[in-house]
Amino acid sequence: xxxxxxxxLSAQLESPNLRDRMVALASLRNVPAEDALPLIKKVLYDDSxxxxxxAVFALGIKQTEESYPILVKVLETDPDYSIxxxxxxxxxxxxxxxxxxxxxxSFYEDTSWLVRFSAAVALGNIKDPxxxxxxxxxxxxxxxxxxxxxxxxxxxxxxxxxVDHILRFAQSEDWLVRQRLAEALGNLPTPKSVSAxxxxxxxxxxxxxxxxxxxxxxxSEDGVG
Length: 225
Fold this sequence. Notes:
Elements: H1 3-12, H2 18-27, H3 33-42, H4 49-61, H5 67-77, H6 81-94, H7 100-109, H8 113-125, H9 132-138, H10 144-156, H11 163-166, H12 175-185, H13 191-200, H14 206-221
Helix pairs in contact: 2-4, 3-4, 4-6, 5-6, 6-8, 7-8, 8-10, 9-10, 10-12, 12-14, 13-14
């Protein structure tokens, strides 16, 4: 992108008009990460939560050496729980193993369930096997969405030993929990996974049944079942 265009986007990010700033941020998708970073930083502390959320998301997509420390700072210090949740999610996009400890700390210490949910999802995205214990503990959470996130993340990190822990959700009243289970089992090639998926493919909810069928096919291609 021409230098003038970057200058135009920079000016647009300083516009008092909210829509102008949002459009400028969206336009950064076509800008190389190193060029986009200084522009993203301009609006990280914008008055608009929408703009700040878009900027934080952009840091996870436009990956540079600065992306990680900036996102850690946002996660640790931002007063708004939704922005902290966005930062946790963006750290997951980076797939940087350095994020493991900060995500675990956020899961245990943040008072917002949304931040804890995003931290659990991100732990799955970075695919760090050290997340096993915290994710299994998250299965006992009172918040159903945290159970969903933990089940999905255990599948993402391919934690075979978690199969016995997550199978108890096969009869969950929440169909999304059952769907996350069906999806996760497709990454956990064991005979128990196959048996559970054959049960779930008869689930009354079509999304659960479809996910189970897809996972069974995946396990079959991997030589299981």
